[in-house]
Amino acid sequence: MTLFELQAWLGHRSPETTQHYVKISPNKLVKAYGDAGYFERNVRTIEVLVDRGAVTSGAAATGETWQYYDLGHGWCTYTFFEQC
């Protein structure tokens, strides 16, 4: 039963009233995500190459590039790698 169906069945005027009585446990939430296929559809792994030399020498603190994102078609150094 959806929240709105439950709201109508209980005779509540607003969804907030119904939500007050409905508690979703973390286990139930994980099951719902699993049943919806959320985890299978939203698996996104990005490999990151870290330049240890730049980090240990302190060059990274001065702004030198030290992270390289592998997007499958080359390396990107832009922090918001989805724009590469």
Give a brief description.
This protein is of the alpha+beta class. The chain has 5 helices and 3 strands.
Describe this structure in words.
The chain is an alpha+beta fold and 84 residues long. Helices cover 42% and strands 12% of the residues. The protein has a 3-stranded antiparallel beta sheet, with no helix packed on it. Strand 2 and strand 3 form a beta hairpin. Helix 1 packs across helix 2. The protein is elongated. The model has no long low-confidence stretch (mean pLDDT 82).
**Amount of beta strand:** 5-15%
Using DSSP, what is the number of strands?
3
Low-confidence stretches: none
Instruction: For the largest sheet, list the strands in their spatial order.
Output: 1-2-3
Structural class: alpha+beta
Q: Helices, strands, pairings?
A:
Elements: H1 3-10, H2 15-21, H3 26-35, H4 38-41, E1 47-50, H5 52-57, E2 67-70, E3 75-76
Antiparallel strand pairs: 1-2, 2-3
Q: Which features does this protein show?
A:
single chain; 84 residues; alpha+beta; 5 helices; 42% helix; elongated
